[in-house]
UniProtKB/TrEMBL annotation:
Organism from which the protein derives: Nonomuraea insulae
Name of the featured protein: Uncharacterized protein
Keyword Transmembrane helix included in the entry's annotation: yes
Lineage: superkingdom: Bacteria
Lineage: Bacteria, Bacillati, Actinomycetota, Actinomycetes, Streptosporangiales
Positions of the UniProt region annotated as Disordered: 76-96
Transmembrane intervals: 12-32, 47-65
Sorted UniProt keywords: Membrane, Transmembrane, Transmembrane helix
Length: 96
């Protein structure tokens, strides 16, 4: 699932942002429900807790995606391996 999310273009930063937004939305819905609805504090608490439980999931997905991003970077180095870079540098200085 993590690999599929990564292939779809979802990055760890997106999930961290969703986690922070979930925390803010949790507080916002609690405050709105408490002040606007006549159902009482119990219902406001339930709304806040329900949305607040999303944050750990988003943050955990962010960590998993960060590991996937790091793993991908290690598998496919941008400039080749160290041995290839060392050989290229040695050859380029040999003619000087």
């Amino acid at each position: 699932m993590i690999k599929k999310l990564h292939q779809m273009g979802i990055r760890s930063g997106h999930m961290y942002t969703a986690g922070a937004a979930s925390i803010a939305l949790s507080f916002g819905t609690w405050l709105l429900s408490k002040n606007v609805e006549q159902a009482g504090l119990d219902r406001a608490d339930r709304w806040g807790i329900f949305i607040g439980q999303w944050a750990p999931t988003f943050i955990a997905l962010g960590v998993a995606l960060r590991l996937e991003e790091t793993h991908r970077d290690l598998e496919e180095p941008e400039f080749g391996t160290f041995d290839q870079a060392e050989t290229t540098r040695t050859r380029s200085h040999a003619g000087v």
